[in-house]
Amino acid sequence: MGVGARRGVSAAEVLAAVDSVLPAAPGPVRLATLDTRAADPGMREAAASRGWPLTGHAAETLVTVPVPTPSDRVAAAVGTTSVAEAAALLSGGRLLVAKTVHGPVTVAVAEDGEPADLEPADVDLRHHGDVEATEGLVDLAVNVRAGTPPAWLRTVLHDAVDASAAYPDARPARAAVAAAHGRPEAEVLLTAGAAETFTLLARALTPRRAVVVHPSFTEPEAALRAAGHAVERVLLAPPSYRLGDVPEDADLVVLGNPTNPTSVLHPAGDVAALARPGRVLVVDEAFADTAPGEPESLAGRTDLPGLLVVRSLTKTWGLAGLRVGYALGPADLVAALAAQQPHWPVSTPALAALVACTTPAARAEAEAAAVQLEADRAALLAVLPPGVEVVGTPRASFVLLRVPDAVRVRAQLRDRGWAVRRGDTFPGLSADHLRVAVRDPGTSRAFAAALAAILVPGPQRRDPLSAPPSPDPTDDETS
Ligand SMILES: Cc1ncc(COP(=O)(O)O)c(C=O)c1O
Fold first, then answer.
1. Ligand 1 and 256: CB distance under 6 A
2. Which CATH superfamily is domain 129-147+366-478 in?
3. Dist. CA 362–CA 355, nearest whole Å
4. pLDDT(116) > 50
5. For the chain, how long is the longest CA-to-CA vector?
6. Nearest to 7 by CA among 32, 30, 39, 31
7. Is 218 near ligand 1, meaning CB less than 6 Å away?
8. What are phi and psi of 21, to 5 degrees?
C-alpha cells in the first residue's frame, strides 16, 4: 500500500484512507511512503496499530517508478511525480487500486507479483445492473421507472420507426431541448444516451489531472481509462457521502447528482462551487428528474465556466434500449464533443422521443412521477427489516443499503426471485452494499419480507408475503 500525506497527518486519517481501498481479504499488508513522511508520528502510529511494516523511500527512488497517474504538483512539492503509486509499485507487482484521494491522504494499492500492469483492475467498471436483472427475476437492480415507456410515447416511437427510411434530422429535437432548458441551441449536444457523452469527453479532452468523484456511476472512469487517460479517484466518505474537497488543479472533474449508487443529492451550491476557469466540470444528472422540481439541477446555469450537464431519457421514460440523452454546456465544448460523434449519431426514434419528452405535458408527467416516487421510496424505507442500514439520505429512484453478509443475501434473494444490484463494483463501496430500486409499495413489501426471511432464517421459513409478484410485462420491459 503506497501512502502519500500532508505533513502532520493523524493515524486515524491514514487508516480511514487505507481502509477505504483495502481489498476485502487482503494478504499481508505493507505500507510504503516517502522517507520524510515515514517519520511522521501519525503514519508510524497507523502502521504500528495494525502491526504493518512501514517503509520510507527517497524521492529520488520513487521518481524512477513508472506510474499511471504522475503529478507535476506532487513533483514540485516533494521531488517525485508520485508517492502513493510509486511507493506501492516500487518492488514490482500489479496496481490494484490507482491513486485515490481520501481527505488529506492519498493511497494506492499494488499486489506483489509479476511486474507492473499499470491498468488498475480493482473492480469491473463495466459491470452494470442490467446483467443482474436476468429473466424471471423481479428487477430491483436496474433503476428504470416501472411501467414505462407510457403508451403515448410508444405511439411516438412507432411512428418514428415508420419515418426512419430517411436520415435523421436533429434540428427539431435540438430546438426542443434548448427551449426546455432556456438555452441557445449551440449549447445542446444530442447523444445516444448519457453514456455516449463520457466517451466523447474522453476522446475530445486531454486532461492533465482528471478526477472522478466516487462512489458513482463507473462509465466516466471506464471511458477515460479506455482512451488512455490517467484517472484519480476522490472517495466521498460514509455515512453521508456528501461532496468534499477536490484537488484544486484538477482540470476535469466528474460527479453525479443525484449520485448513483448512493442516491445522495448534493446541494447545487456545493456542485457549482467546483466550477473554475480552466476546468471542465461534468455533472451527470441522469437521475435529476427523479427529484420533484429538480431542486439541485444545474441544467439552466450558463454562468459557470466549463460546466457540462449530462442528461438522460433512460430512467424516467423507460428508454434504456433506445439510447437517448443530451448534454448542456458552453458552445465551444459542445462543438468539440460533437466533432467526435459519427454523423447522424442519434436515431430518428430517439430524436422523436426528445421532442415528445420535453413538451410541457411530458414534463408535468415526469414531475408527477417524481412526486409519486417520493412516497414509494418512503414506503420502501418504512418496511425494511431491522439489521438493514439505509446509507445516506436517499433522494433518487433507488436506495443504497448496507446488509450484513450481503453476498449471501443477494444470492438468496436471487433464489427467491429478486434481483438487486451488487455494491462492490463501485469504488468506495464494499460487498456489504446493495442498491435497490424503488418500486410500488406492494412490491417493496414483498421484497422486504423476502429480505427479512433471509436475514433471520427460521425452520423452512418462507413467508407467503415474500413470494415475488409474478413478473408481468412491465417487469420484463424494465430489466
Ligand atoms: C448515473 C448514471 N448516468 C448515466 C447512465 C447511463 O444513462 P444512458 O442510458 O442515458 O446512457 C446511468 C445508467 O445506469 C447512470 O446510472
1. yes
2. Aspartate Aminotransferase, domain 1 (3.90.1150.10)
3. 10
4. no
5. 72
6. 39
7. no
8. -120, -5
